[in-house]
Amino acid sequence: MAGITAATLLAQPFGGLINEDVMQQIWDISHIPLPFQDLIGSGSHVNPYAEWTQDALQAPNVSNSNVDGADVVTDNTNMGNRVGNQTQQSVKRVKVSERAQGSDVIGQSNALAYQVTMRQQELRRDVDAIMVSQQASQADNGTLPGLSAGLGAWLTSHTNNGATGSNGGFNTSTGIVAAPGNGTKRALSEAAIRDLCQAIYQDGGDPTVWLARPAVVRKVSEYLFSTTAKVATLFTDVGQEKGPSVAKGSVNVFVTDFGVTLSLVPDRLMQTTAAGASTAYIITPAYLMKSDMKGIRTEPLAKTGTADSRMMVEDWTLKVLVEKAHGAYRDIDETATMTA
Question: Which residues, including other chains, have CB under 8 Å from residue 10's CB and lie 6 or more apart?
Protein backbone atom coordinates (compact mmCIF):
# COMPACT_ATOMS: atom_id res chain seq x y z
CA MET A 1 0.00 0.00 0.00
CA ALA A 2 1.43 3.35 -1.12
CA GLY A 3 1.29 6.60 0.80
CA ILE A 4 1.64 7.49 4.48
CA THR A 5 -0.10 5.39 7.11
CA ALA A 6 -0.18 5.49 10.91
CA ALA A 7 2.33 2.66 10.90
CA THR A 8 4.82 4.63 8.81
CA LEU A 9 4.40 7.71 11.02
CA LEU A 10 5.08 5.66 14.14
CA ALA A 11 8.06 4.05 12.46
CA GLN A 12 9.94 7.33 12.06
CA PRO A 13 13.08 7.70 14.23
CA PHE A 14 12.83 8.87 17.86
CA GLY A 15 9.30 7.62 18.47
CA GLY A 16 7.59 8.60 15.24
CA LEU A 17 5.58 11.67 14.31
CA ILE A 18 2.21 10.95 15.96
CA ASN A 19 1.58 12.79 19.24
CA GLU A 20 0.98 10.53 22.22
CA ASP A 21 -2.57 10.26 23.54
CA VAL A 22 -1.97 9.96 27.30
CA MET A 23 -4.69 10.59 29.85
CA GLN A 24 -3.55 13.48 32.03
CA GLN A 25 -4.15 11.83 35.37
CA ILE A 26 -2.27 9.46 37.63
CA TRP A 27 -4.44 6.79 39.19
CA ASP A 28 -3.45 5.71 42.69
CA ILE A 29 -5.20 3.08 44.84
CA SER A 30 -2.61 3.10 47.62
CA HIS A 31 -4.19 5.97 49.57
CA ILE A 32 -4.99 3.76 52.52
CA PRO A 33 -6.52 5.15 55.75
CA LEU A 34 -4.56 5.02 58.98
CA PRO A 35 -6.65 2.60 61.10
CA PHE A 36 -4.55 2.77 64.28
CA GLN A 37 -4.01 6.54 64.34
CA ASP A 38 -7.70 7.07 63.57
CA LEU A 39 -8.60 5.08 66.70
CA ILE A 40 -6.21 6.47 69.31
CA GLY A 41 -5.55 9.86 70.83
CA SER A 42 -2.79 12.36 70.12
CA GLY A 43 -0.52 14.42 72.31
CA SER A 44 2.92 15.97 72.56
CA HIS A 45 6.15 15.71 74.53
CA VAL A 46 9.31 17.81 74.84
CA ASN A 47 12.18 15.36 75.41
CA PRO A 48 13.53 12.53 73.24
CA TYR A 49 12.62 10.10 76.01
CA ALA A 50 8.92 10.57 76.73
CA GLU A 51 7.73 9.36 80.14
CA TRP A 52 4.40 8.89 81.86
CA THR A 53 2.98 7.07 84.90
CA GLN A 54 0.88 3.92 84.75
CA ASP A 55 -1.33 3.41 87.78
CA ALA A 56 -4.27 1.22 88.76
CA LEU A 57 -6.65 0.78 91.65
CA GLN A 58 -5.63 -1.85 94.15
CA ALA A 59 -7.66 -5.05 94.35
CA PRO A 60 -10.76 -4.86 96.62
CA ASN A 61 -9.96 -5.61 100.25
CA VAL A 62 -12.84 -7.66 101.62
CA SER A 63 -11.28 -7.47 105.12
CA ASN A 64 -11.35 -3.66 105.20
CA SER A 65 -12.50 -2.80 108.73
CA ASN A 66 -11.32 -0.58 111.56
CA VAL A 67 -12.08 -0.27 115.27
CA ASP A 68 -13.77 3.02 116.01
CA GLY A 69 -11.24 5.50 117.41
CA ALA A 70 -8.22 3.30 116.66
CA ASP A 71 -5.20 4.65 114.81
CA VAL A 72 -4.96 3.79 111.09
CA VAL A 73 -1.59 2.10 110.70
CA THR A 74 -1.82 0.83 107.11
CA ASP A 75 -0.37 3.06 104.40
CA ASN A 76 -2.27 2.54 101.14
CA THR A 77 -0.31 5.10 99.13
CA ASN A 78 0.55 3.87 95.62
CA MET A 79 2.66 6.03 93.32
CA GLY A 80 2.23 3.94 90.19
CA ASN A 81 4.94 2.93 87.72
CA ARG A 82 7.02 5.39 85.73
CA VAL A 83 7.52 4.18 82.15
CA GLY A 84 8.71 5.72 78.90
CA ASN A 85 9.33 5.32 75.20
CA GLN A 86 11.97 6.64 72.85
CA THR A 87 11.22 9.23 70.18
CA GLN A 88 11.67 8.02 66.62
CA GLN A 89 12.50 10.36 63.77
CA SER A 90 10.96 9.17 60.50
CA VAL A 91 11.94 10.93 57.28
CA LYS A 92 11.35 11.08 53.53
CA ARG A 93 13.37 13.06 51.01
CA VAL A 94 12.66 14.15 47.45
CA LYS A 95 14.88 15.83 44.89
CA VAL A 96 13.54 17.28 41.63
CA SER A 97 15.54 19.20 39.05
CA GLU A 98 14.52 22.68 37.91
CA ARG A 99 14.01 21.38 34.38
CA ALA A 100 11.71 18.61 35.63
CA GLN A 101 9.69 21.17 37.55
CA GLY A 102 9.26 23.25 34.42
CA SER A 103 8.29 20.31 32.21
CA ASP A 104 4.77 19.34 31.21
CA VAL A 105 4.46 16.10 33.20
CA ILE A 106 1.57 13.63 32.93
CA GLY A 107 -0.98 14.19 35.70
CA GLN A 108 1.13 16.77 37.54
CA SER A 109 1.02 20.55 37.52
CA ASN A 110 4.23 20.68 39.54
CA ALA A 111 6.56 17.69 39.87
CA LEU A 112 8.07 18.85 43.18
CA ALA A 113 4.70 19.50 44.82
CA TYR A 114 3.45 16.12 43.65
CA GLN A 115 6.46 14.32 45.11
CA VAL A 116 6.11 16.13 48.44
CA THR A 117 2.41 15.25 48.71
CA MET A 118 2.97 11.57 47.95
CA ARG A 119 5.92 11.19 50.30
CA GLN A 120 4.02 12.91 53.14
CA GLN A 121 1.33 10.27 52.82
CA GLU A 122 3.95 7.53 52.81
CA LEU A 123 5.51 8.98 55.96
CA ARG A 124 2.20 8.83 57.82
CA ARG A 125 1.67 5.24 56.68
CA ASP A 126 5.18 4.31 57.85
CA VAL A 127 4.45 5.65 61.33
CA ASP A 128 1.10 3.85 61.53
CA ALA A 129 2.68 0.54 60.55
CA ILE A 130 5.53 0.91 63.05
CA MET A 131 3.15 1.67 65.93
CA VAL A 132 1.33 -1.66 65.48
CA SER A 133 4.56 -3.62 65.08
CA GLN A 134 6.56 -5.55 67.66
CA GLN A 135 9.57 -3.26 67.33
CA ALA A 136 11.69 -2.79 70.47
CA SER A 137 12.62 0.70 71.64
CA GLN A 138 16.14 2.03 71.18
CA ALA A 139 17.85 5.20 72.35
CA ASP A 140 19.54 7.46 69.80
CA ASN A 141 23.27 7.28 70.61
CA GLY A 142 24.56 9.31 67.68
CA THR A 143 25.17 6.18 65.63
CA LEU A 144 22.00 4.16 66.02
CA PRO A 145 18.67 5.95 65.54
CA GLY A 146 16.04 6.29 68.22
CA LEU A 147 13.24 3.75 67.89
CA SER A 148 9.78 3.88 69.41
CA ALA A 149 8.56 0.56 70.79
CA GLY A 150 5.53 -0.73 68.91
CA LEU A 151 2.34 -1.83 70.62
CA GLY A 152 3.30 -5.49 70.30
CA ALA A 153 6.47 -4.96 72.33
CA TRP A 154 4.66 -3.21 75.18
CA LEU A 155 2.01 -5.82 75.94
CA THR A 156 2.82 -8.41 78.60
CA SER A 157 -0.14 -8.66 81.00
CA HIS A 158 -2.70 -10.09 78.59
CA THR A 159 -1.10 -12.07 75.79
CA ASN A 160 -1.59 -15.36 74.01
CA ASN A 161 1.62 -16.66 72.45
CA GLY A 162 2.37 -19.69 70.34
CA ALA A 163 4.58 -22.45 71.72
CA THR A 164 8.08 -21.13 72.59
CA GLY A 165 6.83 -17.55 72.16
CA SER A 166 7.62 -14.96 74.82
CA ASN A 167 6.65 -11.47 75.94
CA GLY A 168 8.85 -8.40 75.66
CA GLY A 169 7.85 -5.43 77.80
CA PHE A 170 9.23 -2.41 79.64
CA ASN A 171 12.48 -2.92 81.57
CA THR A 172 12.46 -0.83 84.73
CA SER A 173 16.27 -0.94 84.95
CA THR A 174 17.14 0.20 81.41
CA GLY A 175 13.98 2.08 80.42
CA ILE A 176 13.97 0.07 77.18
CA VAL A 177 10.99 -1.87 75.84
CA ALA A 178 12.05 -5.30 74.58
CA ALA A 179 10.54 -7.08 71.57
CA PRO A 180 8.58 -10.30 72.12
CA GLY A 181 9.97 -13.62 70.95
CA ASN A 182 8.31 -15.37 68.02
CA GLY A 183 6.47 -18.59 68.75
CA THR A 184 5.02 -21.43 66.70
CA LYS A 185 2.24 -20.43 64.31
CA ARG A 186 -1.22 -21.80 65.14
CA ALA A 187 -4.89 -21.26 64.36
CA LEU A 188 -7.06 -18.72 66.11
CA SER A 189 -9.27 -19.94 68.95
CA GLU A 190 -12.57 -18.45 70.09
CA ALA A 191 -11.89 -19.55 73.66
CA ALA A 192 -8.51 -17.79 73.66
CA ILE A 193 -10.09 -14.55 72.42
CA ARG A 194 -12.72 -14.75 75.17
CA ASP A 195 -10.01 -15.45 77.76
CA LEU A 196 -8.12 -12.32 76.72
CA CYS A 197 -11.28 -10.21 76.84
CA GLN A 198 -12.12 -11.53 80.31
CA ALA A 199 -8.62 -10.86 81.63
CA ILE A 200 -8.60 -7.29 80.27
CA TYR A 201 -12.07 -6.64 81.68
CA GLN A 202 -11.13 -7.97 85.11
CA ASP A 203 -8.15 -5.58 85.18
CA GLY A 204 -10.43 -2.62 84.44
CA GLY A 205 -10.13 -2.35 80.68
CA ASP A 206 -13.09 -1.93 78.35
CA PRO A 207 -11.75 -3.10 74.98
CA THR A 208 -13.77 -2.21 71.90
CA VAL A 209 -11.56 -3.10 68.93
CA TRP A 210 -10.07 -6.26 67.44
CA LEU A 211 -7.34 -4.86 65.17
CA ALA A 212 -5.67 -7.30 62.80
CA ARG A 213 -4.51 -7.94 59.28
CA PRO A 214 -7.35 -8.45 56.76
CA ALA A 215 -6.75 -12.19 56.49
CA VAL A 216 -7.11 -12.57 60.28
CA VAL A 217 -10.29 -10.49 60.40
CA ARG A 218 -11.69 -12.72 57.66
CA LYS A 219 -10.90 -15.88 59.63
CA VAL A 220 -12.80 -14.53 62.65
CA SER A 221 -15.72 -13.40 60.49
CA GLU A 222 -15.95 -16.74 58.66
CA TYR A 223 -15.88 -18.64 61.95
CA LEU A 224 -18.55 -16.49 63.61
CA PHE A 225 -20.74 -16.75 60.52
CA SER A 226 -20.48 -20.51 60.22
CA THR A 227 -23.18 -22.88 61.43
CA THR A 228 -20.81 -24.58 63.86
CA ALA A 229 -19.97 -21.41 65.79
CA LYS A 230 -23.64 -20.75 66.68
CA VAL A 231 -22.84 -17.10 67.22
CA ALA A 232 -23.88 -15.11 64.17
CA THR A 233 -27.21 -15.17 62.34
CA LEU A 234 -28.02 -14.45 58.72
CA PHE A 235 -29.77 -11.23 59.66
CA THR A 236 -28.87 -8.00 61.38
CA ASP A 237 -31.32 -8.17 64.27
CA VAL A 238 -30.16 -5.44 66.64
CA GLY A 239 -32.16 -2.23 66.23
CA GLN A 240 -33.10 -3.00 62.61
CA GLU A 241 -35.83 -4.82 60.80
CA LYS A 242 -34.98 -8.32 59.68
CA GLY A 243 -34.89 -8.80 55.97
CA PRO A 244 -33.29 -11.20 53.50
CA SER A 245 -32.98 -8.66 50.68
CA VAL A 246 -29.25 -8.14 51.23
CA ALA A 247 -26.95 -11.15 51.37
CA LYS A 248 -24.64 -10.75 54.36
CA GLY A 249 -21.50 -12.82 54.21
CA SER A 250 -19.49 -11.37 57.05
CA VAL A 251 -19.51 -10.30 60.68
CA ASN A 252 -17.95 -6.98 61.72
CA VAL A 253 -18.87 -6.91 65.42
CA PHE A 254 -18.24 -9.66 67.98
CA VAL A 255 -20.24 -9.28 71.21
CA THR A 256 -18.40 -11.25 73.90
CA ASP A 257 -19.14 -11.67 77.57
CA PHE A 258 -18.94 -8.94 80.24
CA GLY A 259 -20.35 -6.29 77.86
CA VAL A 260 -17.18 -6.40 75.75
CA THR A 261 -18.15 -5.64 72.15
CA LEU A 262 -15.30 -5.87 69.66
CA SER A 263 -15.42 -4.14 66.30
CA LEU A 264 -13.42 -6.19 63.81
CA VAL A 265 -11.12 -3.62 62.21
CA PRO A 266 -8.85 -4.73 59.34
CA ASP A 267 -5.49 -2.98 59.04
CA ARG A 268 -3.77 -3.25 55.64
CA LEU A 269 -0.64 -1.62 57.03
CA MET A 270 0.10 -4.29 59.64
CA GLN A 271 3.01 -6.58 58.78
CA THR A 272 3.67 -10.22 59.54
CA THR A 273 6.56 -11.24 61.78
CA ALA A 274 9.84 -12.66 60.49
CA ALA A 275 8.29 -16.10 61.03
CA GLY A 276 5.37 -15.21 58.75
CA ALA A 277 2.84 -15.04 61.58
CA SER A 278 0.29 -12.34 62.42
CA THR A 279 -0.53 -10.49 65.61
CA ALA A 280 -4.01 -9.25 66.51
CA TYR A 281 -4.69 -6.66 69.19
CA ILE A 282 -7.64 -6.27 71.52
CA ILE A 283 -7.44 -2.61 72.47
CA THR A 284 -9.07 0.06 74.59
CA PRO A 285 -8.35 3.09 72.37
CA ALA A 286 -8.71 5.65 75.18
CA TYR A 287 -5.48 4.34 76.73
CA LEU A 288 -3.28 4.73 73.65
CA MET A 289 -1.70 7.88 72.23
CA LYS A 290 0.59 8.95 69.44
CA SER A 291 2.76 11.73 70.88
CA ASP A 292 4.74 14.18 68.76
CA MET A 293 7.88 15.98 69.84
CA LYS A 294 7.63 17.73 66.48
CA GLY A 295 4.78 16.98 64.12
CA ILE A 296 5.04 16.29 60.40
CA ARG A 297 6.78 19.13 58.64
CA THR A 298 8.31 19.79 55.23
CA GLU A 299 11.63 21.60 55.15
CA PRO A 300 13.81 22.75 52.22
CA LEU A 301 17.33 21.35 52.08
CA ALA A 302 20.40 23.26 50.96
CA LYS A 303 20.54 23.73 47.20
CA THR A 304 23.82 22.60 45.66
CA GLY A 305 22.91 22.38 41.98
CA THR A 306 20.04 22.79 39.56
CA ALA A 307 17.63 20.78 41.68
CA ASP A 308 15.42 21.45 44.69
CA SER A 309 15.30 19.08 47.66
CA ARG A 310 12.68 18.75 50.36
CA MET A 311 12.66 16.72 53.58
CA MET A 312 9.51 15.45 55.27
CA VAL A 313 10.14 14.55 58.91
CA GLU A 314 8.24 13.66 62.08
CA ASP A 315 9.55 13.09 65.63
CA TRP A 316 7.04 10.83 67.35
CA THR A 317 6.50 8.05 69.87
CA LEU A 318 3.75 5.68 70.98
CA LYS A 319 2.42 6.03 74.52
CA VAL A 320 0.73 2.95 75.95
CA LEU A 321 -0.91 4.82 78.81
CA VAL A 322 -2.29 1.71 80.54
CA GLU A 323 -0.67 -1.53 79.45
CA LYS A 324 -3.27 -3.75 81.14
CA ALA A 325 -6.09 -2.21 79.11
CA HIS A 326 -5.02 -4.12 75.97
CA GLY A 327 -4.20 -7.61 74.80
CA ALA A 328 -2.12 -9.27 72.08
CA TYR A 329 -2.91 -12.52 70.29
CA ARG A 330 0.40 -13.46 68.66
CA ASP A 331 1.75 -16.12 66.30
CA ILE A 332 -1.46 -16.46 64.25
CA ASP A 333 -1.41 -18.71 61.19
CA GLU A 334 -3.42 -16.75 58.63
CA THR A 335 -4.06 -19.89 56.56
CA ALA A 336 -5.51 -22.00 59.38
CA THR A 337 -9.24 -22.17 60.08
CA MET A 338 -10.31 -20.69 63.40
CA THR A 339 -11.38 -23.18 66.05
CA ALA A 340 -13.59 -23.17 69.11
Answer: 16, 17, 18
Range of the domain at 252: 35-53+81-332
Domain assignment of residue 65, yes or no: no
In this structure, is residue 2 part of a structural domain?
no
pLDDT digits (tens, 9 = 90+) for 244-281: 554 455 667 887 777 788 999 999 999 999 889 999 99
In sequence order, which residues have a C-beta less than 8 Å from that of residue 314 and are 6 or more positions away? Answer: 89, 90, 123, 127, 292, 294, 295, 296, 297
Strands (E), 55-171: 81-86, 88-97, 159-160, 169-170
Beta bridge partners of residue 300, listed in sequence order: 310
Model pTM?
0.82
Instruction: For residues 228 and 21, give the distance between their C-alpha atoms in angstroms, rounded to a whole number.
Output: 56
CA separation, residue 164 to residues 21, 77, 186, 216 (Å): 59, 38, 12, 21
Residues 6 or more apart whose Cβ sits within 8 Å of residue 69? none
* DSSP letter, residue 336: S
The answer to whether residues 159 and 305 touch, using CB atoms and an 8 Å cutoff, is no
